[in-house]
């Protein structure tokens, strides 16, 4: 009977652990959404950063800016 009790205790502990992990996963969902938004903002900044830094320094290396620079 002791082994049966031990197996039951282990099984209950496993179910409790699984339930806690599911709870944690649900509570972390807003963080996953926020992380995706941050990645999107970073990608946008990485794309726009060189365009604006070149304008500040006076050089225009972006293809659309290069055409305008040559025309003037």
From TrEMBL:
Disordered as annotated region, ranges: 52-72
InterPro entries recorded: BORCS6, BORCS6_C
BLOC-1-related complex subunit 6 C-terminal helix domain sequence ranges: 12-48
Pfam families in alphabetical order: BORCS6 (PF10157)
GO biological process, one term: lysosome localization
GO cellular component entries: BORC complex
Protein name: BLOC-1-related complex subunit 6
Originating organism: Lates japonicus (Japanese lates)
């Amino acid at each position: 009977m002791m082994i049966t009790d031990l197996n039951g205790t282990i099984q209950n502990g496993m179910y409790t652990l699984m339930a806690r992990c599911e709870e944690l996963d649900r509570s972390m969902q807003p963080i996953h959404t926020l992380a995706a938004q941050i990645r999107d903002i970073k990608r946008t900044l990485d794309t726009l950063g060189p365009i604006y830094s070149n304008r500040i320094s006076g050089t225009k290396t972006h293809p659309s800016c290069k055409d305008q620079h040559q025309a003037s």
